[in-house]
C-alpha cells in the first residue's frame, strides 16, 4: 500500500485507496475521496451527494510489473437551493478532465523524446496515443532556449535540406562541456548576421577562441562579432583535406585499372564470341580493399606479421605484404604516405606547445611547397594561408568530461559527434519540415541536462492543474 501511495504521489489526505485487485497483467486500484461537507461556491447553500460515477484511467508507470488501472469514484454534488441547482463533481488533481491517462503520461512522453532513435510513431504506440498527440505534447513542454556563449565555442554546418531556406544548418557548441549552444536554420549571412549581432555584447567580448574548419566566412566571424577572440582552424580538417586529396589520387588510379580490366574483358568476349567475366585484377583488388593502409594514421594501424591466407592471391600474406604490394602499383603512394605521416607526427607531438609548433611549421611549409608532387605543393600553400589559425589549435584549455575536468587541445572534434546526432535524428524521422520542432528535439536530446521551460526535474509529476502547467 505504501509503495502504491508513493508511486501515485497521493499526498492529499482526502484521497485514499479503497480496493486493490489483480486481473492478469493489470492491477486495478479504486480511489475515493473522503466525503466532507460541501457548500455551493455560487450561493453558499449546503450541497448534497447525487451518487458516484466510476471513471477508469490508465497510469503509464508499471508497479511490480503490473499495469495500473485507476478506478476513480467521483461523487457528484448538487446545490440544495432550488433557485441555484449548481452541481460539481469530485476532482483528482493527477488527471485532467476528459483524459484517459494520468498527467504523468505527458512527462513520460517528453522523456521518451530524449532518445534520438525514438520517433513520434514509436512513442505513440508505446503510450497508446496518436502520433499527432505525442508531437503536440512535446511541443507544449519543450521550448529550448539558447545557452550563453563561453570563452571557447565551436561552429560547423550540417546538411538538413528541409527547404530552400534551410539547406545547411549552423551548429554552435560549447567546447568546454560539449553541449550545443544553439542550432540556426542556415549558415547564410542573412540568418547569421542578425543572430550574432543581437547577442549581448558582454557575451561576444568574452569569447576567446572560435573553432571552425577552413570555411572563410566562419573565420571572418572573429572580426565581425567577437573582437577579443582568435580563429582556430581545427587540425582534423587540415589532415582531412590532405587525406581527401590522396584518396582522390587513389580513386583515379582505381578508375584507370578498372577501365583496363573492362577493355580486356571486351577483347576476350569478342574473341570467344560469348561474354567473358574476369575476376578483379591484382591492382583493383588492392586499391579497393587495402587503400586504408595509406590513408590511415600509421600509429592507428595494427600490423600483423603472422601470414594469413588471402583468397584472392591464394597465398599467405600479412599487413606488410599488402603494403608492399600497394607501393609496387605506384611508387608515388609510398611518398604520399610518408609525407602525410610527417605532418601527422608534427600535429601530434606539439599539443600544448604552440611556440614550438610555429617553429616546426615554418620549416614544414617550404618543404611541402618544394615537393615534386602537386598535392603537397597545394598543401604547403594551404598551410601558409591558414598558418596562424592552425597554430592556435595547439592551445590547451579546460574541458569537462563525465565526472572529471581535464586539459584538452582546441578542436572541432566534439562538434562532429554532435553533427552525427543531427543526421541520426533526420534519418530516424524520415525527414522534417518544421525546423523549430527539429531544433527543440535536437537540443533536448543532445544537451546533458536540458531545461524544459525553466524546469530541470523530469520526474513524472501527477499534480498538474491543467494542460498549460
Characteristics:
alpha+beta; five-stranded mixed sheet; 18 helices; 22% strand; disordered C terminus
Q: How would you sum up this structure, described in words?
A:
- The protein has 3 domains: about 1-100, no CATH class; about 150-235 and about 395-445, Ribonuclease H-like superfamily/Ribonuclease H (Nucleotidyltransferase, domain 5, 2-Layer Sandwich), CATH 3.30.420.10; about 235-390, no CATH class.
- The strands form 4 sheets. Strands 1, 2, 3, 4, 5 and 6 form a 6-stranded mixed beta sheet that branches. A 5-stranded mixed beta sheet has the order 9-8-7-10-11. The chain has a two-stranded antiparallel sheet with strand order 12-13.
- The chain has 18 helices and 15 strands.
- The two termini are about 30 Å apart.
- It is of the alpha+beta class and about 475 residues long.
- About 45% of the residues lie in helices and about 20% in strands.
